# Entry
Amino acid sequence: MAIVFDETNLLARMVGDADGITPEELAAAEPLAAQALAGVKALTEAGVIGFPNLPKQTALAGEIVTYAGKVKGSYDTVCLVGIGGSALGAWALDCAIRGPHPVQGDHSAAKPRLVILDNVDPEFVQLALASMKPKKTLVVVIAKSGATAETVATFLIVRAWLAAGVGAKGVKARVVVVTSEGRGDLKVMATNEGYTTFHIPENVGGRFSVLSAVGLVPAALIGVDVPALLRGAAKMTATAWKPDLASNTPLRAALLHFLSLTKKGKTIQVAFPYANRLWGTAFWFRQLWAESLGKAKNRAGVVVHVGQTPVAALGTTDQHSQVQLYMEGPKDKLFTFWAVKKPADPGAIPAEKTGLEGFDYLTGQSLAKLLDVECKSTQAALTENQRPNCVFTLDRVDAEHVGMFFQLLEFETAFAGEMLDINAFDQEGVELGKKFTFGLMGRKGFADFKKRYTDYEARRKG
Amino acid sequence: MAIVFDETNLLARMVGDADGITPEELAAAEPLAAQALAGVKALTEAGVIGFPNLPKQTALAGEIVTYAGKVKGSYDTVCLVGIGGSALGAWALDCAIRGPHPVQGDHSAAKPRLVILDNVDPEFVQLALASMKPKKTLVVVIAKSGATAETVATFLIVRAWLAAGVGAKGVKARVVVVTSEGRGDLKVMATNEGYTTFHIPENVGGRFSVLSAVGLVPAALIGVDVPALLRGAAKMTATAWKPDLASNTPLRAALLHFLSLTKKGKTIQVAFPYANRLWGTAFWFRQLWAESLGKAKNRAGVVVHVGQTPVAALGTTDQHSQVQLYMEGPKDKLFTFWAVKKPADPGAIPAEKTGLEGFDYLTGQSLAKLLDVECKSTQAALTENQRPNCVFTLDRVDAEHVGMFFQLLEFETAFAGEMLDINAFDQEGVELGKKFTFGLMGRKGFADFKKRYTDYEARRKG
# Structure
């Protein structure tokens, strides 16, 4: 069981000094890596951040698995109501372990479907409700604050839909809540109505919460091997505390990505899985990297407008969509391939010849080989075009490796935040938009923002 | 029926001179717009490009609809084998008209499911095959060249799977081919085996082909209203030939996006639909914009490394994932919102009060209002942070509007290519990776590239 990081094609000797990291730059930055490791360790020991300790929560995992065992068979659909960090981890897990829709195939009580309501698009919610049966649906509502507008609005609709289908008294048995322990309106409602409830530690933010109840509850309900997930994450945690760059994969990856951003101007990181099962994880990573590192100010309060824009691409698919730009367009990108060493199925191509030149060089080979060759060919072509790239190689896509990979990327992000000297754990930038929304929806205390919005509209009219 | 473009928040008076376009810059660029219009017109009249004329192909559309009517009821799954421009248009249409998976709900002969095999990931293909029944699957193979490695490899597997399920003689009735008329191994096989075949005009490239047989065949097979699609596209075509910027929406959008890129350094365009139904279209657009405009050289052969990286984001969902970066990170982005004026369902939120402050300001309102308010609030907050943004507003998401929107974005891309003085219709940058793949897979004539790859591997080892 392993995830290997190969940074060769990020180095100056492969892509040139203008785009690649020189040995001198790497050597000069090593103290920064040590400092980042110490910084994340200090934050963890002070209890400021909680994600490094989540793999140890085996008691909580046990409770969740027990609960899932108890309700098993009573539903064919898990309907997750949540947004952002409350939804993306569950999607990543569903996609990784059971494959992407629609190829997951038919659902049943033995193989429940995960429907994620992570948007307030009314047509989307209406389609979702039409596709589910209240008597066979288990609703998981997830909101750390307990008052996320989108989640609350959607849950009010889903709750009424449940009540119409199973009766007001029946709702209780069909709702599970994941929220903060000591605060929030969702917690109050859960207590009043008697919903089964699991808690999110205060020091675990949404994008770092997949291994808390936020990810583990839906995971257990759709049959993901929760102990294996935590086992993988625990192994990676041990790796992440190692002091040397050679063995500390997340720290080394953070340093190389940091140098590519700050020394070589690679303002975009393309997360490039060559596996459909990792597509959900790419979107989970996209939040982690964007929200943690995209900041207006550094910790000293100096305006920096820093960050690296994460882009999700899928191989081989996006070779026929994005790679033209990646090869020839602006040199503003670094590419992080996510490869899988041993697909569970080779995908044998029939050996029978067709007599057609464009077909017969493929007959008798396998999709696994073609996928691997295309991944390596794309890396080689990028490298020859001075486009820096690197690879995470997972042995397999299973619960243990996905747990490892989540923890790897969370540690890498935390380390990169330290290197950039920013607070990787807040998200002040989304507050203004939220306040405008509250103002326009008529929430008490936000009339000033309604006024400010009206002034903006007047300015638009010129 | 309309699609409106609002560029107010791209202008200097809203976001400042450093990030917004000044009246002087706009006035100075107007001749360039006229030149771009003339350029695309000349290419069309010379027959170099064919997409502007696709909406007129009503005879072809009639044949396709007739064929779809004939086979209707004989399948519950349409399995599309194709990649890039051969797959993304069909996905965009399926998602727009029937909603995204998994909320589309159960499939049946009356409501067939579209399964797109656009990757050679063996686990993905294996899951897909396990989810389909050969006797109830209609396979559509799409490849303009007739020799795309991924499509050929997948089709060889799917063909054997069909033969195992329906017998070798039964395969013929379960396969439809879309390819070039006069060339390619897929065309030869289709002729030899007697597959129903539709053709792609030579002057229509993959990313501009959604309104050719490439998009229309799968669309008709899943019940999309093909005449409405073409009707919408025809209306937009008329708009795109208008000489004045005020009424020519695609030309105005192209000019403003071009100026944001070249004068204000906005190297990333976020396509930001506030509608799950437009998520597939965002991925279709991502290919169109990236592959058309990402070029190493201009038409004079000068190295320019030009292009704008398209990023797909979904509102409100990505407010909780990407907007922190968008508000506070590097000022390298422009945002193009895709809003829908009249959702088919308002998504009424129950009026009953809960007694909870964080819930009760929402009760009795609607998801449609919340979605609209969040979209506008995000625009306002971006504007106050000097982040230029603009909006396409579609009245509705239906076949007619999607047809209009495809054509709008195709024209916009073609115009932007003229303004950048590049060839927007080739994709030379993907050739090197393909050649390495051919070499490593042992295709005849590519031994040199196998050697070149081996040399690269040796350099990596240092």
Notes: The two ends of chain B are 62 Å apart (CA to CA).
